[in-house]
Amino acid sequence: MTSSKQRRHDLVRRLGIEPTIAARLKATIGPAVDAASARSPGDVTVLDAGCGRTSPLIGFRDRIDRFVGVDIHAPSTPLPYLDEFATVDLCAAGASFPDASFELVLSNFTLEHFADPEAALANLYRWIRPGGTLVITTVNRRHPFVNAYLSFPDGARRRVQPLIKETAADAHPLVGACNDPEAVAEALEAAGFEQIELETVGNLARAWGRHWPTFAVGLAGDLIAQGSPSRRSTILASAVKPPEPALAEPASAGPALAEPASAGPASAGPASAEPAAP
Ligand SMILES: C[S@@+](CC[C@H](N)C(=O)[O-])C[C@H]1O[C@@H](n2cnc3c(N)ncnc32)[C@H](O)[C@@H]1O
Fold it and tell me: Range of 37's domain?
């Protein structure tokens, strides 16, 4: 990090705009990797969905047995930390992976780009193993600056993007169809996920901090939303695909031709009473 960028980051920290999205992601992914290792020892298979050219999962690489990345664009050079890369449109129908392929799926700053977020979440749901975790981050339209940025006509946004993005390749078309906390929670629930947890952090000064003018706008944006969690710029969500219902206990070990059970507690088979996972 250059010294002026470092100074900007220090200022953000001194102003109390914390935690960072990086720290919260790490704290969210860590337990999900622990759970994956416990469920599938030796087969911790992880997907970075919309992997771009870097990944917060790199820090967990030594605990991942198979690390797959997909993106709608192939990276210009191979990503050395991946075991496998595939070019995939996450919003397209079709079977890019067999069902239940992955213990953990991360989709980091991607939802705002999806033309059809419901289709993408349906794909990710199918590809996650029962009991596995989805972690997503995206931008929050309830922040007025984010909303303005997403609402800019493409031409205007293209003029601003070079100030914010490191390279033109990092400036992806934006849609913003599922980009506030309620919409994200509802979309995850509609896809079938459970244990949905959502939080927001202020990330504009850091995300727009390559140059002083955009940094100053971002910092003002973070400060105005800091006391209002539902408006902070960035959403972090995690959710779990429901585990498969436990197999029903065999009927009570009575004689093979037992009399029909009376309508008492013994007849209330717990597993058969469970609705099927969506
Ligand atoms: C802001 S970048 C984030 C990249 C990476 N996840 C990261 O954290 O640096 C958004 C990424 O989503 C990808 N993307 C956008 N729409 C997509 C789609 N429909 N299917 C797959 N990838 C998509 C883009 O190509 C881009 O790499």
Answer: 3-246+265-273
